[in-house]
Design a protein that fits this description.
alpha/beta, Rossmann fold, 2 domains, six-stranded parallel sheet
């Protein structure tokens, strides 16, 4: 039996068990995928628990994608370049290996026609956490000319370590000339942030008409940000497809098998 899981805080929104259990069932692999809500101060103990209880691996989400790296025995070169890990393999010797599948999911969730038109365009990211690191790498691969980060004033100095231009997020942020804006915060997520947009109406109104508004939050499927953007006839993309694609990559790392993306997607629709 293969034992898999997800660590993060909070985890009430997660659809990962549904899609990974569906993938295991399709491949005929006995196993389980369990949620482990893990506060930051519990991270080390949680990693020790997973390592010592025969887990094959686990996913990592907010707020641990950077902090987890301290507890890994080896990190894939690509994940090191990104500076964040979202997938961990535990081998038979209880050694932990870290990978990043978020970048792949972020890029390939964007419809092909839009993706190919982003080369040499400008982009903005809302937030500066672990997901932002993967998104910057993805934007670089897409040929984005300039990336701007908008984040809380309290996070500004730390955000500058990411190597792109950083600004304080407020209601008067002007996004003129931005072709892709990505919400990389939990704002809009089911729970205490639901029904809230990470961008003001003023900011959305400043976007060009051909901009893509991409919210990596996947529950609810249509966030307040997306609703506001669609009311302005902007193209939007939610986080569901990114979730599925990064999950399929993680499944392959754990099992060596190519998971059915269609099966995983159907399990959470």
């Amino acid at each position: 039996m293969i034992k898999l899981g997800l660590i993060g805080y909070p985890l009430g929104h997660s659809l990962s068990p549904l899609m990974h259990k569906a993938a295991l069932a399709e491949e005929g692999i006995p196993g389980d995928y369990v949620l482990f809500e893990t506060a930051p101060e519990e991270l080390k103990d949680r990693v020790d628990y997973l390592k010592n209880n025969n887990f094959r691996g686990f996913n990592v989400t907010i707020p641990h994608k950077v902090a987890i790296m301290e507890y890994l025995d080896k990190i894939d070169n690509f994940a090191l370049k990104v500076g964040a890990v979202n997938t961990v393999i535990i081998d038979e010797n209880k050694k932990l290996f870290g990978y990043n599948t978020d970048v792949y999911g972020f890029i390939h969730a964007i419809p092909t026609d839009i993706r190919h038109n982003l080369n040499n365009k400008n982009a903005a990211i809302i937030g500066s956490g672990g997901a932002t690191r993967a998104i910057i790498e993805g934007m670089t691969a897409l040929g984005i000319k300039e990336v701007k980060i908008f984040t809380l004033e309290s996070e500004l100095e730390k955000a500058k370590e990411l190597g792109v231009n950083c600004f304080v997020l407020n209601e008067k942020v002007n996004l003129e000339g931005i072709s892709l804006v990505v919400n990389a915060t939990p704002v809009g997520m089911e729970g205490k942030f639901e029904g809230v947009s990470s961008l003001s109406q003023y900011s959305l109104d400043s976007l060009p008409q051909d901009a893509l508004v991409y919210d990596i939050v996947y529950k609810p499927r249509k966030t307040k940000l997306m609703e506001m953007a669609e009311a302005r006839n902007l193209t939007t993309l939610g986080g569901l497809e990114m979730l599925v694609l990064q999950g399929a990559r993680a499944f392959h790392l754990w099992t060596g098998l190519e998971a059915s993306v269609d099966t995983m997607r159907a399990a959470i629709l």
